[in-house]
Amino acid sequence: MSRPSRRKLQRHHARPRTSLRFACSLLLSVLLTIGILLGMFMLDIPLGERGRMEYRYSLYPEYRFLQAVQLIVAIGACALVIILLGRKRSRRAQRSALVLFTISLSWMCAWTWYAPPKPAVYHGMNLYSPSHDGAFVFEAEQAGPIAQYLRDFPRLLHRSPEQMLGTRVLSNPPGMTVLVRAVQNLWPFDPDRPGLIDRLLLDSGDRPDLLGLQALRMRVSIVLTALWGISGLFAYLLGRLVFSRAGAVVFCLLVTFNPATVHFSPGKDPMQLLTINAMLWAWFAGYRRDQPQLSLLAGMLLVVGLVFGLIHFWIALAALSATLWIALRQKRSLWYTFRRHVLPAISGCLLVVVIAFPALGWNIPATLLGVAQRFAQIQHTIRYSRPLWFFIGLPLFVLFLSPTVMAMLLLRRRLHRIRGLGTPILVSTVAIMLLTYLIGVTYELPRLWIAFLPLLTLGICADQPLLKSDPARRAVTALIILLTLHIASTALHFSLLDPREAEYRLSTRRYFD
Predict the structure, then answer these.
(1) Segment 62-68 long-range contacts (CB within 8 Å, at least 24 positions apart)
(2) Peptide bond into 266 cis (omega under 30)
(3) CA–CA distance, 504 with 501 (Å, rounded to integer)
């Protein structure tokens, strides 16, 4: 038998095995995520510690399911995007596909805002609650001049959780409070000339004397949703460093529109994907293209992100360790990597700090250090069963993962032998996640670990041939199946759960829990 004939025969035998492995991975991933969630929903098994820290099931699953059916349009649009991107010779088709994808992703983010029952009241409830992002809105309303507030923030951290009605402000830097104040100043409420948003509030039956307070919260919810949607642009750019256009589209959807982000948007944690994706894109693009100016930008974005959440430090640490590992694999000098990329990134951090101090009198390092110390101090004030959450924290996080991400993980081959980019990124990210887990952050991981999703997904998918090369006909079908599974599972998640308890608090009149 000639060599060409042998190759054709090998390919003929390999295709059924590949298809079987693909199908088994999809089935197992669905059973480990959606299957378990459906079983727990039907048996009314609590997701968390009942009565204390629990992700509640929705009181209106039928209404949510009817709203989720609208995502069939998104599935069709994304399938068309993949088909158009599969036409390698047609640039017009590829440009049209990217425009269509941008419109689809924007619509999906907008859908996330209006899909819950009575969205004006629903989001207003979340932004009234001191245990959620409402704490930042209350803080912005009560704070004095913002420059003075930032200068005094290390001293304000000594307030007790009882004074703050929770720990949300005390465990986070002041970036979110500054954002709310910016919305308040740049998009003011005018009772004499109500806009479209204000008319929605009037239709919701709010008392006229509370309309101004509710209007601010609605504006904040819209801005948070918009910033979360913009993060998808940087997710796509990050994906393009590794994947084909079609692969970057899939990666962008996995990172941006998933069960965790849909449940907690509009909110601070999905919004942080903007600074995280931008920072990761600048860092890895700077390393890949050997451009120190991009590494400088990554350092600047790191400090901007730290102003909103300390978790950016852990993301940067995982990205740095993965980059050094990749440099060793590529036989690059570590000193060269440090000089060309790490030093510029440190310079970018210092540049933002130096600008902020004379401009606002704000000592950013002192603020971040104070928040880190206060975060450690207030952990004992949070009432939850630590042994219980040590065992259920990670499984709950897995339940909020997309089955498509799980399938991609199952499709990886010989993790220790792969010499691509995925293994260093995946191992470094998982190691940092486990480190934060072991030091005591075992609760609320579906929300807190949204920040890790870009790196985690990149590490899982980076070595997948399905995403790296331009899709052939069979690959287009596989990508459409993966996207359909991802969007459908996100829709089902939305239908079953109300993790922020807005429905429960509204029905029981517990408005300020």
Answers:
(1) 63/117, 64/115, 64/116, 64/117, 64/494, 64/495, 64/496, 65/495, 67/111, 67/115, 67/116, 67/494, 68/115, 68/491, 68/492, 68/494, 68/495
(2) yes
(3) 5
* pTM of the predicted protein model: 0.91
For the stretch 292-310, pLDDT in tens is 999 999 999 999 999 999 9
Token pair of 223 as six digits: 């801005």
In sign, the C-alpha dihedral spanning 449, 452, 416, 34 is positive
* Residues 482-506: tens digit of each pLDDT: 999 999 999 999 999 998 888 887 7
Tell me what the pLDDT averaged over the chain comes to.
85
In whole angstroms, give the CA distance from residue 45 to residue 27: 23
Retrieve residue 296's tokens. Answer: 């400088």
Q: Tell me, what's the pLDDT at 300?
A: 96
HEC assignment per residue over 388-447: HHHHHHHHHHHHCCCHHHHHHHHHCCCCCCCCCCHHHHHHHHHHHHHHHHHCCCCCCHHH
Structure tokens at 510: 């517990």
pLDDT digits (tens, 9 = 90+) for 340-399: 999 999 999 999 999 999 988 899 999 999 999 888 888 777 777 778 888 888 999 999
Which candidate, 21, 267, 248, 29, places its Cα nearest to that of 126?
A: 267
Token match 């932004």: residue?
127
Positive/negative CA dihedral, 415, 419, 422, 427: positive
Q: What is the DSSP string of 309-346?
A: -THHHHHHHHHHHHHHHHHHHTT--HHHHIIIIIHHHH
The tally of CA atoms less than 13 A away on the side-chain side of residue 5 is: 2
Consecutive H or E run containing 33? none
